[in-house]
TrEMBL record:
InterPro entries to which the protein is assigned, alphabetical: Epimerase_deHydtase, NAD(P)-bd_dom_sf
Residue span(s) of domain NAD-dependent epimerase/dehydratase: 3-224
Family the UniProt entry places it in: Belongs to the NAD(P)-dependent epimerase/dehydratase family.
Protein name per Swiss-Prot or TrEMBL: NarL family transcriptional regulator
Highest taxon in the source lineage: Bacteria
Amino acid sequence: MRILVLGRTGYLGAHVADRLRALPGARVFDGGRSPGADFGIDLAADPPQRMAAVLATAAPDAVVNCAGATGGDAVTLAEANARGPAALCAALREAAPAARLVHLGSAAEYGPGTPGTRVTESAATHPVGPYGATKLAGTLAVTASGLDGVVLRVGNPVGPGAPPSGLPGRIAALLREAGPDPEAVLRLGDLSAHRDFVDVRDVAHAAALAVTAPGPLPPVLNIGAGRAVAVRELVRGLAERAGFRGRIEEEAPGSARSAQVSWQCSDVTAAAEALGWHPAHPLGDSLAALWAATAPAGTLTP
């Protein structure tokens, strides 16, 4: 089975590619902008005709799109998250219409949730900012494409390799910098928002199952832990694993999105039914793996 992974150099893409390589008989190829990519594709800029030519050469049985932008201005987000998937679908219809497309979406597409409630795939979508809005546009491009496609709406990924551009990776970096100093102070924003943190390794497993599942799949599947956790709990959990002895103060300005979206939690029943997928890593396991992965080379961690 020939599988083309777009965005392999990113956080999710690296884990997804590793998981796919473990599939029996799988040949996994890297598609992207980096010079070392097996197939050069720039979703944000390439015209569909050029993408189609590359796809015809790659001849994939499945394409997993992990590419996208989480930060930047609205134009950057739109190019990567909305225009990119639309152009990819157009190219696939021309060059590889039988290939399965697995596209990584985001729970941010739903917008604010109702406290105490898990959101299902049929819920209305009300994204509050450019990121969620552009990810939703990408989802609509896939679900309306007529391809054998599925969108995995991923919660907040956490686990080994989390980048400092996201909250878990940023907190881990701050804790490494602070060390065991009892006078250290982490000044953070409001940590009361609740998020559905899902281990990145569980996301990769879901992508692999979506690639290999027989028959058509539902157009959208939630991939989360199915449990909302206060961001404060995640920060304290990481601090405990770091042996942090200082203070955590919630006095700095928080993110606008946290203020607008105080609760997010996904119902993952449909993924269990369609893929046989269940989250396997509890949050404590994810935080331990994240902390261990940030240790300097040659350092032993408990």
